């Protein structure tokens, strides 16, 4: 367990170091592809819709029992 905690601490510090290096590079809005934004929005809407449909169907199955 001690090895895991030590390894997790080192991993956290390395991730923080990478985040500090990449914080200086901020993409401007002109560099973002409109196609990529459309795909991301569609995926998000589909995932939220799928989650809602899943929960509604599970609720209906519970009520039938």
Structural overview:
The protein has 65 residues and is an all-alpha fold. The protein is built from 2 helices and no strands. The longest helix is centred in the last third of the chain and has 31 residues, at 34-64.
In terms of topology, how is this protein built?
Elements: H1 2-22, H2 34-64
Could you report the average pLDDT, rounded to the nearest whole number? 81
Number of helices: 2
Assess the beta-strand content as a share of residues. Answer: under 5%
The sequence of SSEs as H and E is: HH
Query: Looking at the chains present, what oligomeric state does this protein adopt?
Result: single chain
The whole-angstrom Rg is 21 Å
Largest sheet: none
Q: Can you give the helix content as a percent range?
A: over 70%
Describe the global form.
flat
Q: Count the E strands.
A: 0
How many angstroms separate the termini? 44 Å
- The low-confidence parts are none
Protein structure class: mainly alpha
Short description:
The protein is mainly α and 65 residues long. Helices cover 80% and strands 0% of the residues.
What labels describe this entry?
flat, 65 residues, 80% helix, mainly alpha
